[in-house]
User: Which sequence fits this backbone?
């Protein structure tokens, strides 16, 4: 790994990782309080609203952020000109989208299973406009590996739910607390990113530059539509088939697990996309970076998935409370499958995009949807829990398809992938066997907590004893130093 790129990735990952750790430590605290104040129905309504907002965000951005990060510009002037075009386009599109949501708010509410909540959805959609203000600034920070600045902004906005959402929840006892908290976070983030950004928006616009970006972003746009369907098809089905209670149980469980996983993915993935883009034409260096970080992620995520699956009841009780007991099985199976899927699939997605092959990323998502949609439609006929397990296990198909794509399009062989994660996989199997024995010793909450902490210590000891060099690399990775 070249020294300059090595330092950039390591330093950026450190700040991104620390920011996500602090933010994700705050999130469970907030969730623990909100889950005891609000009912699952309230979280079900917010899940439906977030589904709408995330869909609208696809049209608002149109792949502009990824273009700015991936493209190599001749000068800073060219970069800033393109940023202005992207910014104005984002603002314009967001206003149109918010207007459409406002006009058809009642129809949209009925479509997502929230009849009579059209006004709520229209107010929540203001978040789309607020995020459009800051999205281009974020992409420029990431392009320049300025993750230290993003770290400070992340910390400030992470505290917003704690200081605004929780007090409002105690006062209103309704979903309005979550809506107000989300709007406050988006507004704060937009203000901070704009004030401290070297680039400031101007009124420059060029249709030729817009066409250039759009021609690049069309595949990203298609991919994002497919990703949205992948992420929300189950939510749509549950919202229209079962009650808001089950939608809240389901989506809040997934969000809890995803937040845990995001301690790793949200800190590394943005950095890797920037890094992959900068070395996209150096095949040897590209593979070295890919396999190095895949191994580190595997060493960290495999045991996390095992612990979530084995101690799902304890995790649910601590983080959500007794009224969420039904969520434990969802948390367990989703946590296990996510830990495996992220190691193989999430990094692959950044490879497709960094190589300028968003068409491959789109095709991958379409193939996955061809399996996912029939699986969800068929399984939901047999009940809520059949859908839960089928939706989690279908991730295996995504992993297998990823193997084929990486081999065929990028000449990253199966044997190379398995060699990269061979050590973490062996250690994970040993750890799973140990955990399966000790996790069933007692149903007492305190004993389970002590056991879980003890098992974490056992894993670290085994890692340091038998994979010393990898242990050193992980420590250096966390510290933000250079690879050994």
Assistant:
């Amino acid at each position: 790994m070249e020294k300059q790129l090595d330092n950039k990735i390591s330093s950026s990952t450190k700040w991104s990782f620390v920011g996500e750790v602090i933010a994700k430590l705050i999130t469970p605290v907030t969730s623990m309080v909100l889950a005891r104040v609000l009912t699952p129905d309230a979280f079900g309504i917010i899940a439906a609203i977030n589904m709408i907002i995330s869909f609208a965000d696809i049209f608002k951005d149109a792949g502009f952020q990824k273009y700015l990060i991936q493209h190599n510009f001749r000068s800073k002037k060219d970069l800033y000109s393109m940023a202005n075009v992207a910014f104005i386009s984002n603002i314009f599109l967001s206003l149109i989208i918010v207007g459409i949501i406002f006009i058809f708010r009642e129809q949209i509410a009925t479509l997502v299973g929230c009849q009579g909540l059209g006004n709520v959805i229209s107010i929540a959609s203001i978040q789309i406009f607020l995020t459009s203000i800051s999205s281009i600034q974020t992409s420029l920070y990431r392009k320049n590996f300025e993750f230290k600045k993003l770290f400070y902004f992340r910390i400030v906005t992470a505290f917003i739910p704690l200081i605004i959402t929780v007090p409002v929840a105690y006062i209103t006892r309704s979903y309005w607390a979550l809506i107000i908290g989300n709007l406050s976070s988006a507004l704060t983030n937009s203000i901070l990113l704009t004030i401290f950004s070297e680039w400031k928006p101007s009124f420059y616009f060029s249709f030729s530059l817009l066409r250039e970006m759009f021609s690049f972003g069309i595949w990203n746009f298609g991919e994002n539509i497919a990703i949205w369907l992948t992420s929300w098809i189950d939510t749509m089905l549950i919202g229209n088939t079962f009650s808001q209670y089950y939608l809240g149980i389901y989506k809040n469980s997934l969000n809890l697990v995803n937040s845990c996983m995001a301690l790793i993915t949200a800190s590394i993935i943005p950095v890797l996309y920037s890094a992959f883009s900068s070395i996209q034409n150096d095949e040897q260096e590209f593979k070295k970076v890919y396999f190095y970080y895949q191994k580190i992620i595997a060493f960290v995520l495999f045991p996390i998935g095992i612990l979530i699956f084995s101690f799902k009841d304890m995790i649910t009780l601590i983080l959500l409370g007794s009224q969420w007991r039904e969520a434990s099985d969802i948390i367990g199976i989703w946590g296990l499958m996510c830990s495996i899927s992220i190691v193989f699939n999430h990094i692959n997605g950044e490879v497709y995009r960094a190589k300028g092959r968003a068409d491959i990323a789109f095709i991958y998502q379409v193939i996955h949807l061809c399996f996912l949609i029939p699986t969800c439609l068929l399984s939901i006929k047999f009940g809520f829990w059949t859908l839960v397990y089928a939706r989690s296990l279908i991730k295996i198909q995504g992993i297998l398809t990823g193997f084929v794509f990486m081999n065929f399009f990028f000449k990253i062989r199966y044997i190379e992938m398995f060699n990269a994660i061979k050590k973490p996989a062996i250690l994970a199997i040993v750890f799973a066997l140990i955990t399966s024995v000790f996790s069933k010793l007692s149903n007492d909450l305190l004993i389970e907590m002590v056991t879980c902490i003890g098992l974490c210590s056992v894993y670290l000891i085994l890692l340091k004893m038998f994979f010393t060099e990898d242990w050193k690399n992980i420590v250096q990775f966390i510290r933000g130093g250079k690879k050994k």
Summary: The CA atoms of residues 98 and 126 lie 7 Å apart. The chain has 21 helices and no strands. The radius of gyration is 22 Å.
